[in-house]
Amino acid sequence: MALPAELRDQVQRIAPVVLAAEQVLPVPTIFHSVLPGGGLQRGWTARVDGGSSSRALAWALLSTVTTSGGWIAAVDVPGISLTAAREVGVAIERVLVVNSTDASNWSNTIGALIGSVDAIVFGAPRHRVQPREYRRMSSRCRERGTVLVELAQDKKQQLQYDVSFSVEPVKWHGLGLGHGCLQARALDVSVRGRRTPGGGRHARFELPAIDGQIRCVETETDVEGDVGGEVDHVRPTLVALD
Amino acid sequence: MSAAKSIMFGQRSLLLTRSAPVVDIPRVLALWVQDWPVVAAGISASEPGAVLHANRVVASSEAARVMGVVRGIRRREAQARCPELVLAERDLAGEARAFEPIAAAVEAFTPRLELTQPGTCVFPTIGPSRYFGGDASLAEQILAAVDGLLDGRTTCHIGIADGVFAARLAARVRAAGPCIIAPGATPDFLAPLAITTLDQPELTTVLWRLGLRTLGDFADLDPRDVLGRFDAAGLAAHKRASGTSDRMVEVTEPPEDMAVALSLEPPLDRIDQAAFAARQLALELEAKLQRRGAACSRMTIEAESEHGERFVRGWRHEGALSVAAMTDRVRWQLDGWLNASPSIRPSGGLSLLVLRPEDLIPATGRQLGFWGGETEADQRVGRAVARLEALVGADNVQVAEWRGGREPDDQICLLPAGTVELGGRQLPLLDDRPWSGQLPAPSPVELFAGREISVVDEAGKLVAVSGRGELSAEPVRLCCDGQTWKRVVAWAGPWLLDERWWDPDRARRRARFQLVDDDGHAMLAYVQQGRWWLAGTY
Asked: Which domains does chain A show, CATH number per domain?
């Protein structure tokens, strides 16, 4: 039941001080080693890129939010597959799927969701998001504590994000030439952020592993501190299941 | 200062007298239009027709009742009893809109008209009765006015008795003329009626089992025993049954002006805008009432058009009006005003809306479940859904519902969020039901519909699958965008699927493949009618 306004003011006045670091959205333990502060800080903007598989990463990142009673919204995510989201642990009964219908509605749609849900995932907006529009949105997010996650199509990064995940390459296990079926996926993810000390961090996630669980296999931190540096990509290799 | 104080004390004393047991309850006229849902749905009285809600009959026409189509039976049963039955879905907004001319006609007799639901309205007769020459004369004049509007589509009944409860029952006697219960005779009128007329199933089933079959039996009990056994709600029911009070609960007048107002700029002239304004006002009023620990059972809706015309109408409810109930009533009323005949319709858009609570009852509140149930987060999302629905339309704000199926796009369907109770939902866990032919996890993360691809063999010929599920050759290269060709580094299939062959629209006969190209992109593709389609990417 909503608190009356006076009572809410009182609560705000007498509430103990909460440090920014304590206002984090819970994330699965596999992300603890790659995220500065061990979680997604409320009000952050995040970006995930690197093809379809990056969506699996985004869903996994937000899964604990939904299982602990929070809500997330997916705005304009074409071909959304909640089955896949469920497989990486998202409680899909608390996912709102919104279609903004029109470019002029887009920022109002996001605006209506900021402060109401804990995280907003948005894919390809129908128009180019202006830096001013984006800055206004991200400042409202900081104010209201909602995390904004962009599912990016390409690697080009025009806007400033608090944290960005870049997925490449993807390795598949279980499928051979004419036999088997896809069973496990290994993602090499580099995590960079405004607040990450030094360079980025790299990790290999299994989403899912052969046994159906999600886990983080290895983590390393860039010592050179070259934020913009590209990782040396290796070609994908396939490990056939014997 | 002292003047203000005395006013306050004056109201305090008023409050006390109001909450004391009311003995001389007001005389009330109730007007009931028979089978209103059926008439509003456009079904004439002579043809058999019924109105359904949630697959059950909620109202039926006279011709249908003769055939045995009564309230509460299922659609199929109704159609079995009367094959030529005309069916319509219940449309409360439409009923309210159609009722507006009748309400306006009755309003010519009294300024204190209250609607309880479309088709029924009540008002205290104390002033009008004296002015129009007694209860009988008043009722005759109202009947004449309303019958003129109804034009023989159905009949209208009037009951006059002490209190709203008795008056409404008197109207339902369906006498040829108005049913007027003499002052003081109301307890005798109520006594032989069935206990179920109280319309409080959880109470009346207990009373029935205790052997109390009529309102009179119940009224004969000692009020103290009723209070001891059935609490305040039981006592209120006892008072209604004995004709000494007609309220469900004790009512007080609002101690101050608690109206909420909304000025509309630009003026409101479309009903979809009205729905949004209605909800906003209802939420505001509820917050205001909640601060006093109160809820309201009767409210007045006032509107002012941009040309200064004023419209006022009261709505009454048994028990407390929830936000949804208030929203609905405001919406129906605005709909009624905006779509009324030109003579009574506002000449311009509505520029001011006021919602005024009339009767306050103590809010018993809602105890949230200890485990699960609706949380604060769910309520926040509910409010966001209401805003978004106004922005992008109800169909574009969706939540997931488990459906089950063999293909990734079958397993979960999306429903408009406004139609679902958002709090405390729980979808079944993974893999709870086996679907033979379903591909194992992981599922594709991005789905495609109607995207054709080419998958060719070493010779550059499209790979085909025979009717027996045999491959013409191994897939070697594929092309998704019509330009660049990729090498297939791993593949498996065909996994055949032939489902819903009995339904030509939804039938699927396809052979599915998993393919991985040399960039590491995994995809789910299928062959149907000799052509390759992309179903999703992993």
From this structure: 23-153+162-221 (3.40.50.300)
Please tell me if residue B450 touches chain A, with a CB cutoff of 8 Å: no
Residue position matching structure tokens 């009006």: B321
pTM score, whole prediction: 0.57
Per the CB < 8 Å rule, is A172 touching B409?
no
Q: Is B414 helix (H, G, I), strand (E, B) or coil?
A: strand
Q: Using a CB-CB distance cutoff of 8 angstroms, which residues of chain B are in contact with residue A70?
A: 377
- Is the confidence metric ipTM above 0.85 for this complex? no
Could B441 and A87 be called an inter-chain contact, meaning their C-beta atoms sit closer than 8 Å? yes
What CATH number matches the domain at B260-362, 3.30.1070.10, 3.30.420.40, 3.30.1490.100, 3.40.50.11540? 3.30.1490.100
Per domain, the residue ranges of chain B are: 42-90, 260-362, 386-429, 446-537
Cβ contacts below 8 Å, chain A against chain B, sum to 183
Place of tokens 């936000």: B323
The average pLDDT across B491-510 equals: 90
**Whole-number pLDDT of residue B15:** 36
| DSSP helix/strand/coil, B39 | helix
Beta strands B156-162 and B179-180: pairing type? parallel
Mutation for testing the A interface, residue in B260, B388, B431 having most A CBs under 10 Å: B388
In B249-284, which positions are buried (b, 16+ CB within 10 angstroms) versus exposed (e)?
bbbbebeeebbbebebeebbeebebbbbbbbbbbbe
Domain B42-90 = CATH 3.40.1170.60 = yes
Q: Are strands A95-98 and A72-75 parallel, antiparallel or unpaired?
A: parallel
B522 CB near a chain A CB, below 8 Å? yes
d(CA B512, CA A46): 35
